Amino acid sequence: MSTKPTILFVDDEERILRSLKILFMTRYNVITTSSGYDALDIVKQKKVHVVVSDQRMPIMLGADLLRQVKSISPNSIRLLLTGYSDLQAIVASVNEGEIFRYINKPWQTEEIKGTIAKAVDIALRLEKTAQQIQSVDSEKLEHPAKTEEYLTTKRLNLLVLDEDENTFNIISKLSDNAYTTYWARTLDEALHMLDAEKISLLISDVQLNGEDITTSIKVLKEYNHNIITIILTAFQDTKALINLINQGQIYRFLPKPIHESLLAKSLAAAVNHYQTLQATPKLLACHEIEATGREESSEAKISNKVLSFIDRIRGRHNKDSN
Question: Residue 114's domain spans which residues?
Answer without folding.
Answer: 6-127
